[in-house]
Structure formats: structure tokens, C-alpha cells
Amino acid sequence: MRIRTLIMAIALLSASALHAEPLAIVVHPSNMAELSGDDLSRLYLGRSRTFPNGDSAIPINLAEGMPARERFDERALSRSSAQLKAYWSKLVFTGKGTPPQEAESHEEVLKLVATNPSIIGYLPASQADDRVRVVMQLD
After folding, report:
1. Which residue from 4, 57, 103, 119 has the least number of CB within 10 angstroms?
2. Measuring CA to CA, which residue among 89, 25, 88, 27 is closest to residue 55?
3. How far is it, in rounded angstroms, from Cα 138 to Cα 24?
4. Residue 78 region by backbone torsions, left for phi larger than 0, else alpha for psi between -120 and 50, else beta
5. For residue 65, how many other CB atoms are within 10 A of its CB?
6. What pLDDT sits at residue 20?
7. Residues of the chain with pLDDT under 50
8. In a domain? residue 32
9. Closest Cα to residue 59, out of 74, 73, 71?
10. What pLDDT, on a 0 to 100 scale, did the predictor assign at position 5?
11. Is 48 in contact with 41 (CB distance < 8 Å)?
């Protein structure tokens, strides 16, 4: 019984450590835009369609239910995933907005960002590589 409890404790600690990993906000290496937290929020809430330098911006979300998506929603947008779903439902219904496209994996975010200077995405910091430029990190 003790071994089972120990294994479960280790699994929970491992899961919480992964959940606590910082998120990297990434853009194409040629994109020299600098972002504030407010800029990031405006892009992902559909309130802006451009980077602060005026270049076109296309935000990409991870799929619903992914831990990094939930963490991003809470840290970058100060809302729960359920609140954001309601927010976007209202905007779509009234014709005032379209939510960001979704990527099914961290690798898909990397590929999309690496091939288009207008795309901005996020993923666990340990997943970012030299195909992208990290413009911000969220703890």
C-alpha cells in the first residue's frame, strides 16, 4: 500500500511540475515586434489584428483542453477557458469576431510560426527551438 501511495505522489508532483512550466510566446525569427502583456491580450481577444509595429498578426491557439492552453488563458488573458469560450461564442454570434485558429500540438504551432512571419503562438518554453523567436515568457 505504501508503494502505491508513493507512486501516486510522484505522478502528481510530476504532473504539477509540467503544468508549472513557463510558456514561451513565439513569432517567426524575422518578426522583430516587441510585445507587452496588454498587446498579447488584445491580439488573442480579437481587439487588435496587428503587432505594435503595425505588421499583420495572426494568433494561433492550442486546442481546447491542452494544459498549455488553459495556462495561457489564465496567465495571459486572465480568464478561464470556459469564460473565453463564452466570450468568443458571443462575438461569433453577433458577427463581431472570429476566435484564433487552433493547432493540435506544440509541433504544429512551431511549424505554423516558422513558416509565416505574421503568426504568433505559444507553447511550453522547453518546446521552443531555433525555428522561432521567443518574444515573451509567462511563468
Report:
1. 4
2. 27
3. 7
4. left
5. 8
6. 75
7. 6, 9, 11-12, 14-18
8. yes
9. 73
10. 53
11. no
Is residue 16, in this structure, part of any structural domain at all?
no
Domain, as residue range, for 129: 21-138
Question: 102 lies in a domain?
Answer: yes
Q: State the CATH number of the domain containing residue 79.
A: 3.40.190.10
SS (H, E, C) the chain: CHHHHHHHHHHHHHHHHHHCCCEEEEECCCCCCCCCHHHHHHHHCCCCCECCCCCECEEEEECCCCHHHHHHHHHHHCCCHHHHHHHHHHHHHHCCCCCCEEECCHHHHHHHHHHCCCEEEEEEHHHCCCCCEEEEEEC
25, part of any domain: yes
Rounded to two decimals, what is the model's pTM?
0.84
Report pLDDT digits (tens) over 8-26: 545 445 444 445 799 999 9
Total domains in the fold of the chain: 1
Round to whole Å and give the CA distance between 30 and 113: 11
Give the pairing type, strands 133-138 and 119-124.
unpaired
- Predicted local confidence at residue 18, as pLDDT: 47
